[in-house]
Amino acid sequence: MNTWGSKLKVSIFGESHGNGIGVVLDGIPSGLHIDEEQIRREMQRRAPGRDKLSTPRKEADEVEILSGVFDGKTSGTPICGIIRNTNTRSRDYTPNLLRPGHADFTGFQKYGAFHDYRGGGHFSGRITAPLVFAGAIAKQALAQDGITVGSHIKAIHKVAEQSFLDCELTDAFLKEISEKAFPVICDEKGEEMQKEILSAAADKNSVGGIIECAVTGLTPGLGSPFFGSVESLISSMMFSIPAVKGIEFGRGFEMCGMTGIETNDPFETDGERIYTTTNNNGGINGGITNGMPVVFSLAVKPTPSIAREQKTVDTDKIENTVIEIKGRHDPCIVQRAAVVVECAAALAILEAKLI
Amino acid sequence: MNTWGSKLKVSIFGESHGNGIGVVLDGIPSGLHIDEEQIRREMQRRAPGRDKLSTPRKEADEVEILSGVFDGKTSGTPICGIIRNTNTRSRDYTPNLLRPGHADFTGFQKYGAFHDYRGGGHFSGRITAPLVFAGAIAKQALAQDGITVGSHIKAIHKVAEQSFLDCELTDAFLKEISEKAFPVICDEKGEEMQKEILSAAADKNSVGGIIECAVTGLTPGLGSPFFGSVESLISSMMFSIPAVKGIEFGRGFEMCGMTGIETNDPFETDGERIYTTTNNNGGINGGITNGMPVVFSLAVKPTPSIAREQKTVDTDKIENTVIEIKGRHDPCIVQRAAVVVECAAALAILEAKLI
Amino acid sequence: MNTWGSKLKVSIFGESHGNGIGVVLDGIPSGLHIDEEQIRREMQRRAPGRDKLSTPRKEADEVEILSGVFDGKTSGTPICGIIRNTNTRSRDYTPNLLRPGHADFTGFQKYGAFHDYRGGGHFSGRITAPLVFAGAIAKQALAQDGITVGSHIKAIHKVAEQSFLDCELTDAFLKEISEKAFPVICDEKGEEMQKEILSAAADKNSVGGIIECAVTGLTPGLGSPFFGSVESLISSMMFSIPAVKGIEFGRGFEMCGMTGIETNDPFETDGERIYTTTNNNGGINGGITNGMPVVFSLAVKPTPSIAREQKTVDTDKIENTVIEIKGRHDPCIVQRAAVVVECAAALAILEAKLI
Amino acid sequence: MNTWGSKLKVSIFGESHGNGIGVVLDGIPSGLHIDEEQIRREMQRRAPGRDKLSTPRKEADEVEILSGVFDGKTSGTPICGIIRNTNTRSRDYTPNLLRPGHADFTGFQKYGAFHDYRGGGHFSGRITAPLVFAGAIAKQALAQDGITVGSHIKAIHKVAEQSFLDCELTDAFLKEISEKAFPVICDEKGEEMQKEILSAAADKNSVGGIIECAVTGLTPGLGSPFFGSVESLISSMMFSIPAVKGIEFGRGFEMCGMTGIETNDPFETDGERIYTTTNNNGGINGGITNGMPVVFSLAVKPTPSIAREQKTVDTDKIENTVIEIKGRHDPCIVQRAAVVVECAAALAILEAKLI
User: Å from A27 to nearest chain C CA?
Assistant: First the structure.
């Protein structure tokens, strides 16, 4: 199940410490101009080692496009992008000691003794790099139709800021936020959030957060019942991103505390367009876009890699023991995950347009 | 996109007011004894008109099995189950007046003038009946392997009860709750919840809630990276259920307020089995089951059908107007949705076992 | 694998002697007027018991449409058509005696003791009835775009007639042939073919033949490399039809005796349209339609059911024995299979248009 | 549609003159030892420039494995193999002059002005190299279960040799033939066939032929009704190979001249195993393997690239003209295609085992 999609097909491959990782993206129409510089910027937003908030593993994360692009434009055939693994210190790993919160145990259960455990192998967060590459192209395809995908960090640990649902969502607004090094609506809140991260780091601990994503410029009618709801497409994509443990559309879980008269978004017209005056449903009714911005939030759990002693099992001896994970680690991956979420959303929305 | 799954295939069809609705379920191994009585019980749990809490539309919801079952056992070929629509008063519908919170607008955007708008057509909650039929069979297939799927109502509007994550989850416990007319852990809380529903009804309003679902008896290693994570499979299935607006696995959004040392579930062994001492990750690491119960919660929004005057648009005239939805309606569908969630979960888990 | 297609989805279900058989067809655009009378005519072309050439099993083969059609037009949602099994004398079958040439042995190998062996169960030629229903709708969808699918019987046993490749293929020509009770270009040859069939019947034997199918009115550019070639789509569909054992496009196997200068179809233009002056490639280059008629031929083997004593194995005793199949049987199914081929081709072409 | 398969997934990418070509193969179980030397031998069997019979374009066709293999064994995750394009003289191509028999016209119809026309682009026979890589791995996976795939050249132009159906098919026999530089049963016939090729070359013309493929060691019960017949799986795969225009299983088209009593393969038992005494059905009944060797033949058309003046259209001017294709070309690709057919068959059989 390393291929996603029906009309658009995304096939991911690679292990953290193998020769390379990559993606085959099939279904992009021919004639789309590929802005390689923009792809590079998106890759950089995800790349580790950029600042004091993230892991020191430095990966160039340069994508080589092997196919599907001719004279700077998509040719309509599958686009394969590959990324070399350059910084692969395999000696750090002790496969018999299960890292809590990681996929070590489940990886061995799935693949047996042949599991490539190094750095999480195929389960590594590193495998989101090809997803960013594919999604960056999807974003460009959507931009042609006036569709913009943006995100902000709605919360880090105990610090939260306002929701996109309470903002006027314009393309310019979304782009402005996405270009920030630490993408938040309110920079003061952003400062506080970064303090949470640094404080966790100082404590050899980690924190999670909430990413909120919005898509503007959508025409109504995208998606498909019964199983092709926009929520199904987006959520199946999002839960492929390591550390994502929850998703909600519009007011989501908050709607439990509201009543029908409050959550129903009333329709209104200006004589031309039909729209809703509120957007509690996050731009989706019956699984289909209603023309309002699609808005959803993701729960991202604290990074499991922490430099603390933790209880675990030695699988060689089937004995209880402790593990201390070596090296420096990301105390928080929310800020790096934001671009992954945007790119994954772009892929899901493109599929919703095509089905 | 009315077919779900790769190894297990679920194909849904039907409109609320057409001749019939149904499902084709392909991929169930041959030789499974079909307990038709149990299927009937599950269908009854979903059926409307059972008590004062639900819509008076009475549907027998008798399923006729057309294929795939021979001498009471599955023959390995596709199982088609159909349900006749018997109570279809089409005269109630005024397609030009968009019902807020419903799929009327998006249905017309998707299908144009040919949309079968009667009772929501293909978008109707009624289409979950075939899903229950298919899932009831999936539950029986899972039961053969010692796997149990159960659920409870974790919250209705402002009233909430404890989480499955804070209980000892046994098969017997899950079954006991599922058999309750109003499935809650604590019956006193259940009484309060039902009062919330009756109070909303009295107010011609509606309320939503949270359903929590648990699956026990799972072996570790089910599911598949990258896009076949158990979370992706379950969520893509759940967001096909009308009114579901959010999902979280394990502690979900709550993990944002916790730190890595708290959310990492430590591994432990009794010398034979390896398990985790907490289950914050809801039984899933890296998208793969770890042998602990899979636990997830769903946000169900308040029923959009309410007998109040609501602002909307008349699509014939492209003019603002008001709508008052006739008839009696469910003030809450959470209690009826619980069985749908269990059955949908059973289908997703069965697929996770097969891929 | 009872679902075919990516953009168009065809899900077949049913056993020869179960409650019913049918199909779910998803992906037909909304707004297509359904001509039920034409569907009935296509169903009749396939139905047994019409004349002295076929089996006396009489099946009304009335299709009931359960969903997807509203006010006589497709609503864009899945169309489910079901057919009741009415004439199901199960007592004729001795499952322990394998019928040579049939799927009895392989059915038990696939499904074990739970295989519904009655009348071939899910392997029965009867399951092509739902395929005709689905394909009849596909034909109507294609007709809207000026695309016509027709076929003729190119050979029965030792008697053959000319190829469509040597005719001028117009819509009217194809329709004229399809309307014949015994669809051939040359009726005299048709008389000879029917004599072959009656002669085989008199001899308690059976004969096969070759069906040639043509599709006109296609625009160039349909289909998709690498695995979505029109030949791949059509052949995967055709080999689902029982008794089909070979397929060739254009000159097919005959091309082995030709040279490149002969088989290459030269391009020509009249100043507007580009076409080829010959059609050896059967309207397909590189898997994609080139605008010429798509032409292909199918080898249909002699019906395996013959009223002769045949050597076989008794699977209860694992002993060699003989079987004599009771009842009257089709001495040839080619004439009934022609409409199945046309309808299956219509489904494959519709998918080729959509992918 | 560049991804094939349901349980096994094969995703092909690349253009003849782009940076590289390759394949992602997903679904190979973990723990399979990869024999890279054997893969190299299979790649060499397909590679051009080996002898006087083939095109002088020399491609190293070295595959680099990027993922899915760890310590020489498959890890269960997707295997990506890439091949660099090194010999890409793009200056030879005049995109406005359509080469007869090629996909130039259809490629432009499919992809418009953005089609990568150089060397046929994505339609090039070169794209079969990744298929050989993927299939070579599939062959190794099948070999583990005692399954062997072999082929021979049954005919070149007017020279034909006997069928596999008239031989005793053992693993050793199939392997012996596959190892021949020119794989035939009878080497004298092979000499004659090669003369046909050289004679066509001397005449600046080309010839086609028939490849027959056999698979031994299969257990009965593989494949799946209705659309997953082994014939459907194999044929959909084979028609992805450029120049294949026909396929027949067992006696195929020859069965038209036979009668039921002749084509029905009688069952027999030795007290343990059940088998058929003839194999007219090519090892498949009702789409499912019956344990006899699967045998099928493919019509391969004469190579369209010939150094003759041919009539065509200049698409810039929409005028009739002539084209003369520069350079030296394969006068026959049948001998190189044999390994492609074997490898593609291995992939189809592996899928048939898994579904």
Answer: 9
- Does A235 sit within 8 Å of B236, measured CB to CB? yes
**How far lies B233's CA from each of A235, B145, C225, D225, in Å?**
9, 20, 29, 26
Of the ranges A188-197, B46-55, B197-206, B221-230, which one carries the lowest mean pLDDT score?
A: B46-55
Task: Report the candidate in D16, D115, D121 with the shortest Cα–Cα distance to residue A74.
Answer: D115
DSSP character string of A270-334: SSS-EEES--TTTTEETTEE-SSPEEEEEEEPPPS--SSEEEEEETTTTEEEEEE--S---S--H
Cβ-proximal residues to C122 (8 Å cutoff; 6+ apart), any chain? B67, B75, B77, B78, C14, C15, C16, C107, C116, D225, D226
Of B1, B13, B79, the CB nearest to C80: B13
B304-354 tens-digit pLDDT: 999 999 999 999 999 999 999 877 788 999 999 999 999 999 999 999 999
Assess whether pLDDT exceeds 60 at residue C56.
Answer: no
| D60 CB-near residues (< 8 Å, 6+ apart) | D84, D86
CA distance D179 to D181: 6
Lowest mean pLDDT: which of D76-85, D105-114, D179-188? D105-114
> In angstroms, how far apart are the furthest CA atoms of chain A?
73
Which token pair is B193? Answer: 């919840």
Contact between B9 and C3 using a beta-carbon 8 Å cutoff: yes
Looking at chain D, which subunits does it touch, using at least 3 CB pairs closer than 8 Å as the criterion?
A: A, B, C
d(CA D346, CA D338): 12
For residue D291, give the nearest of D205, D225, D214, D222 by alpha carbon.
Answer: D222
Q: Is the pLDDT of residue D281 over 60?
A: yes
B354, B220 contact by CB (below 8 A): no
Note the helical H segments in chain D: 36-46, 104-111, 128-143, 171-178, 187-202, 230-238, 260-263, 334-354
Residue C54 has pLDDT above 70, yes or no: no
d(CA B281, CA D352): 36
Q: How far apart are CA C218 and CA D272, in angstroms?
A: 54
Could you tell me the pLDDT band of residue C118, with boundaries at 50, 70 and 90? confident
Please, which residues have CB within 8 angstroms of residue C199's CB and are 6 or more apart in sequence?
none
Task: Count Cβ–Cβ pairs < 8 Å, chain C vs chain D.
Answer: 372
Shortest Cα distance from A296 to chain B (angstroms)? 9
Q: Measure the CA–CA gap between A260 and B307, rounded to whole angstroms.
A: 10
Instruction: Read off the pTM.
Output: 0.96
Give the mean pLDDT of B100-129.
Answer: 91
- Residue A155: closest C-alpha in chain B: B256
The position carrying tokens 């490629």 is D107
Question: Which residue carries 């009831």 as its tokens?
Answer: B136
- pLDDT score of D148 more than 90: yes
- Selected for mutation to probe chain C from D226, D278, D279, D295 (highest C CB count within 10 Å) is D226
ipTM of the complex: 0.96
Q: Residue B232 and residue A221: Cβ atoms within 8 Å?
A: no
Percent of all residues in chain A with a pLDDT value above 70, rounded to a whole number: 95
Distance from CA of A12 to the nearest CA of C (A): 19
Terminal CA-CA length for chain B: 20
Q: How far is the C-alpha of C101 from the C-alpha of C264, rounded, in Å?
A: 39
Three-class DSSP category at C241: coil
Using alpha carbons, select from C348, C351, C124, C349 the residue that is nearest to residue C237.
C348
**Min distance C259 CA to chain D CA atoms (Å):** 5
- Residues recorded for chain C: 355
- CA nearest D41: which of D343, D345, D347? D343
Give the Cα separation of A77 and A69 in Å (integer): 8
CB contact under 8 A, D20 and A67: yes
Whole-angstrom CA distances from B283 to A235, A323, B145, B275, D231 are 18, 21, 18, 10, 41
Q: Token pair for residue A302?
A: 């604290």
